[in-house]
Every structure is written in C-alpha cells, then in structure tokens.
Amino acid sequence: MTDIPEDVRRWVDERQAARASKDFGAADDLRERIREAGFEVVDRPGGSEVRPIATPSLAAGQRQRSRPDGIVQLLDQATTFDVSVQWVVEGWPEDVLRGIDSFRRHHPGRSIQQVIVDISDTDPGLWPEEADVIRLEPDVGWAAARNAGLEHAAGAIVLVVDGSIEATGDVFTPLERALTDPAVGVTGPFGIVTADLHEFRDAEGPGCDAVEAYLMAFRREVFEQGLRFDPRFRFYRTADIELSFQILSKGLRATVTGVPVRRHDHRVWQATAPADRDRLSKRNFYRFLDRWRGRFDLTVAGRRAASGRAPDD
After folding, report:
1. pTM here?
2. What secondary structure letter does DSSP report for 124?
3. What does the pLDDT look like over 269-298, one tens digit per residue?
4. Which end of the chain has the lower number of beta carbons within 10 A, N or C?
C-alpha cells in the first residue's frame, strides 16, 4: 500500500479486525471513512487491497468540473470587493438565487463578490453573470466545497451563507462593525454555547462558543493565515462548530451579531433520511470531539469558571 496516508492504513487494519470479529457495522463505517479520504477497499480471498478512487471520465453532455486543488487562488491577491458572499449548491439552486437577489437588493452601492460552489451539476446558465461559479465533483463533500470558495474570496469581509438564508435588510454593516474588533474571529446571528462540549444551545450573546453556518462572517485575513473547514466533514453538521473552535484556539472570540435575515427550510436536512441524518451527524460530532475533547477552557463557560465569575455574570 504505497503512497497511502497513515490514517487510511490504520483504518484498513481496524476494518480487517472488525470483520474478523464479525462487527460488520463498524467495518462498514470504516469503509465509508476510507472512501471519504479518497480511497476504496477491495476485499480479496487473500486479504484487502486499498487503492485511490478513480475519477470518472467526463461523459458526453456532462459539464467540465474541477477538483478543489484546481481552482483559482485569490487569497494571495489584494481585495477587490467590500464583501465576498459564498454559497454551496448541493441542489435547489432556486434557494441560492433567492439569497443572491436579497443581498443585492438590500445592499445597493456595495461591491459584492458572489462565489457559488456548485457540486450538483446545475445548469450554469441559471447563475447571474456577475457571480464567480466554481464547479466541483459532487464527491468532494461540503467542507471541501466551502474551502474552495473561501480560497477564491476577494472581499475584505467573507460571509459563509446557507441557501436557506434570505436578507431582509442591511446585513453587511452590523457584521463589518463587529469585525472591526481585532479580537473577534467569527461572528453571525446564530451563535451557540455549551456547558459540557456535548450539548449546545442558542447563545444570548454577545459572546458564544460557535457560530452556525447559516451565516458566518470573518475578516479575510483569517483565511489568508490558513484557517479552513476540516475537509473530512462531507456532511455539513458540526463543521461550523469545529471551525469556530479553531478560531477560539487562536485566541480570537466568537460573537453573536444580530442581522435582518429570514431562515427558510434547510433543504439538505429535510432531504436526508432520518437514519442517515443521525448517522452522519454522530460521525461528525465524534470528529469534533476527537480534536477538541477536554478544551472546555475555550468556551464562554470555561473562561468564566477560570476567572471565578458565576455563569450568569
């Protein structure tokens, strides 16, 4: 198994052990984890073979797509927009079109870069002419798609926005004002907090432990310094919490900033079968805990406890 990452080698060994003990549920989970890393396991009589997943050739009538490492990088160039608004399309392009129109309508005179990362083979003719459209293979997953859009950001402020969000007023000004504080690393209207790193609830603010990816706002410089979503999060759940904890670990804060938006149905959640939602959500949360278990010191409650203040101070 030459040129196979060490993590993948370990998962292959763990899967073989699970199969030997007839724990086929664990074996299936490990097979999927290996696939998420870009490899497949082929079981043979003499053992298992692991190999990179082949990229299928382009069929007649299909539109050319890129891999995340093939997109144009803009983070090393000067900013040319006030704000970059980034969308990932996993289907339902009408939702993103609604969102783009709402941001355009409520921010006249502002220079807005609309970055659309399409992993659903939407007809390119649907998108506004001014949008920067990045077409990726659908198997890259949510986090890798987000990272591709972030690397293409040319705005001084970067917004990660879900297709369920519609602006109903000036969203940019409150977020820009919050981000003038150099201690703030991420802000947005949907903040959450935790008392134990396992259960999260809505935050009253202004401080929070994570900002949900319905709408997250950052200064572009945090991405210039290497901040990215963990690409192992192919399903969206908990990826925003994990990214927020990366920011907290750098000594920056997460805050709640109220902005005028309306939340519509979250299509991916609704379209995913309940059993699959539960399985994928748990897997992502375990990934979060694998990295941040024990880092209660990063949370609002943890900092209060360390300072000797009561939780409601």
Report:
1. 0.78
2. G
3. 999 999 999 999 999 999 999 999 999 999
4. C
